[in-house]
Amino acid sequence: MLNKLRNLGKQTFVYGFGGVLNKMLGFILIPMYMTHIPIGKFGNLVYLETLIVFLTAFLSYGIAPAHQRFFYIEKEKNSYGVYLFNNFFGSFVLIVVSILPILFFSTEIATVLCKDSELSGIVNLSMWIVLTEILFGYSLQILQYEESPLQFMLYSAFKLIITFALTYILVVNFSKGIEGVIIARLAGGCLIVLCALVLVILPRCTFIVNLKSIKQSIIFGLPFVLSTLGYTMFTLSDRFMLNWLSTSEEVGKYGFGLKIANFINLIFVQTIGMSYFPSVMRNELQENNFRYYRKMLTYYCFIIALLILGFLFFYQNILWVIGKNMEYWDGLKVVPILSLSFMVMGMNYFVGVGLFLKNQTKHYLIPSFTALTINILMNLWLIPIFGMVGAAFSVVVAQILYTGLLAYFSNRYMKINFEWNKILMIYCIAIMCFFSISYTGITNNFFSIIAKIIALLVFPFILYKLKFFEQIEIQRFKEGVAKLYKRIFNIL
Q1: Is 323:34 a contact under the CB 8 Å cutoff?
Q2: From the centroid of its chain, how far is CA 229?
Q3: pLDDT tens, residue by residue, 35-80
Q4: How many Cβ atoms from other residues are within 10 Å of residue 32's Cβ?
Q5: What span, in angstroms and rounded, lies between the C-alpha atoms of 420 and 388?
Q6: Rounded to an integer, what is the distance from CA 104 to the centroid of its chain?
Q7: How far apart are the first and last CA of the chain?
Q8: Is 325 a member of any domain?
Q9: Total domain count for the chain?
């Protein structure tokens, strides 16, 4: 078990870091946003990014998740080349055909989303970003599942560097604002897709038309994409509802807080999730795999809770160095709430494993649309009273409901018996540690840092005293510490 955990940890570092490079552009551009883009215009950028995320999930038509599911199966059948050719280029055709009507109505979409018809040109550019995001995803999946970590990281780093450089030139030197952000992202996406097409996709393709391959993927993925549509609408509805019930400035502040909290998602949650899914496929037929799935969720909750606590304790100290625009800083009040939401969201990778392995993706529909409905109703209730804080609370409640329903339906097909008592213990103690530090009233920076470090050390100690860890886990931990001590001592 611990060998599998160590292997997962290595994969999390390599592929997770590469995935982070691919997605963290919006985070590292924050100082540039704060300096060169007014908060209202930043709200418009939030709408456009929301539209890109929504359409990227919807226009994949379930082919991308099906590619994950059938990757090893098609490899074993020696038919992967045909499968990849038909799915990749079939996906390309479907996406292009789907975005043409959106291009035709881009003026109306810009008016509804951004309350500015003059942004229709940027909406058009955003549609082609959707195409590049989906197509590039196939290359990353291939490199990860073939265990090519160096190439995985190089492609992700290349995309990040090119897009960042172009964004800096267009926004800082040419004052293009959010238009420059979108143009740079599209240009970087096009370049990396062309490179990946030549070096990753085409060499692995067998150029034989077999529509059964893409049909198989769509049949598997369509229920998944419908549920993803509902889930994506649920995760994005907070911004849409704020736009409807509030102002673009309020959305901009909320979007800023969301970007800060999204650091948790990009660096920790998604990196673990990306690495976990291939291990699920590899362990599908292995003995004692249920214990592996069960313990992975417990370990995830423990590790992510500790990481989030550390992030919440110190992120403002770092942020203060890179940007002091107080209009943006007003959005930080939602960061702890949204961080909790991302922690719960990460559990979905683990609790839904039964539905994914048993090809029961249709059961994602009920949790997705139930969470969407609850989130909309709560937003209608809470946003007029509490503004963006109400939107953040709505997300947390709906996310907990989604994860609970997903676990319930998945348990009907695979009774993994997750350690819910331990997981609840983690959440309760982590929240108590956060509040105990946040509301102590310590104003001296030195003593505040000391108190936060003590709280981080106390968190696992309390769990240890409450018999959270099994004896074998404690023993293996002591053995690991002893080996590390020996290595350090030998070096010295």
Answers
A1: yes
A2: 15
A3: 888 877 877 787 788 788 778 877 888 788 788 778 878 888 888 9
A4: 18
A5: 31
A6: 31
A7: 32
A8: yes
A9: 1
